[in-house]
């Protein structure tokens, strides 16, 4: 039975919804701008190195011998009130999309107790690992393996004091006057403490990126440990 999880609920177990078939899972389009230059063949290409959102069409059906209309109302409330949430398909339970329902859902009654309907999910470009467990670094020169097909934007918490130099794949990050801990959030490019007070002035360098494959992390200074939430992702 094909099903999906969305908003911490299971389509089949919680609502009796089944998927007619596996949806097409398109790759995201890369944002590249083409500019025609007079007198030159071809075009100038500006690659933003970013990707467009993707759209997933999920064809579903639902059955209920008790009260089909009430069941449909429950489904609508679930899908539209959830907003953006994790979307996990039963045929790929270790990966998730960040998705939101964007279409007006039309329920077509097939039989007395059954209805079919499409759901359109607007998803961010990448799939992420469902299990995003923190990794602990306690020794400089440690190597981490990124199993994803694309570079990840991790969340690093550096526990230590004073001036600290991080080196990730030969890219240096300088942290100054650290007190107990400092958090580097690569996804939103922000540096802050445990109470989310900005510490951007205490960081110099580019926010860390973990490339696909091997990554070497080293440091100097008074560091107790580095906790990394890796955010592995796939195209």
Strands, helices and their partners?
Elements (H helix, E strand, L loop, with lengths): L3 E3 L2 E2 H5 L1 E3 L10 E7 L6 E9 L2 E10 L4 H15 L2 E5 L5 E7 L6 E4 L2 E16 L5 E3 L4 E5 L8 E14 L2 E15 L4 E3 L10 E2 L8 E17 L3 E2 L1
Describe what this molecule looks like in 3D.
The chain is built from two helices and 18 strands. The chain is mostly beta strands and 235 residues long. Strands 1, 2, 3, 6, 7, 8, 9, 10 and 18 form a nine-stranded antiparallel beta sheet that branches. Strands 11, 12, 13, 14, 15, 16 and 17 form a seven-stranded antiparallel beta sheet that branches. Strands 4-5 form a two-stranded antiparallel ribbon. The two termini are 26 Å apart. The model has no long low-confidence stretch (mean pLDDT 91).
- Strand count, sense and closure of the main sheet? 9 strands, antiparallel
In CATH's first tier, which class of the largest domain applies? Mainly Beta
Number of DSSP helical runs: 2
- Which overall shape is indicated by the principal axes computed on the Cα atoms? globular
Concise structural overview:
This protein is mostly beta strands.
List keywords for this structure.
single chain, 235 residues, mainly beta, Elongation Factor Tu (Ef-tu), domain 3, Jelly Rolls, 2 domains, seven-stranded antiparallel beta sheet, 9% helix, globular
């Amino acid at each position: 039975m094909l099903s999906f999880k969305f908003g911490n609920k299971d389509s089949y177990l919680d609502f009796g919804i089944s998927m007619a078939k596996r949806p097409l899972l398109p790759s995201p389009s890369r944002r590249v701008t083409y500019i025609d230059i007079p007198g030159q063949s071809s075009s100038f290409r500006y690659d933003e190195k970013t990707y467009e959102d993707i759209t997933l069409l999920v064809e579903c059906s639902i059955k209920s011998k008790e009260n089909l209309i009430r069941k449909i109302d429950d489904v609508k409330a679930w899908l539209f009130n959830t907003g953006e949430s994790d979307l996990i398909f039963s045929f790929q339970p270790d990966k998730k999309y960040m998705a939101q329902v964007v279409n007006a859902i039309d329920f077509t009654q097939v039989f007395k107790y059954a209805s079919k309907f499409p759901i359109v999910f607007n998803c961010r470009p990448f799939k992420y690992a469902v299990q995003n467990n923190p990794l602990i670094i306690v020794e400089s020169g440690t190597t981490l393996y990124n199993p994803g097909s694309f570079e990840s934007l991790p969340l690093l918490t550096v526990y230590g004091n004073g001036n600290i130099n991080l080196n990730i794949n030969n890219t240096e990050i300088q942290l100054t006057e650290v007190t107990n801990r400092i958090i580097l959030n690569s996804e939103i490019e922000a540096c802050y403490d445990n109470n989310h007070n900005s510490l951007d002035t205490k960081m110099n360098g580019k926010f860390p990126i973990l490339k696909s494959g091997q990554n070497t992390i080293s440091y100097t200074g008074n560091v107790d440990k580095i906790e990394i939430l890796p955010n592995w992702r796939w195209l």
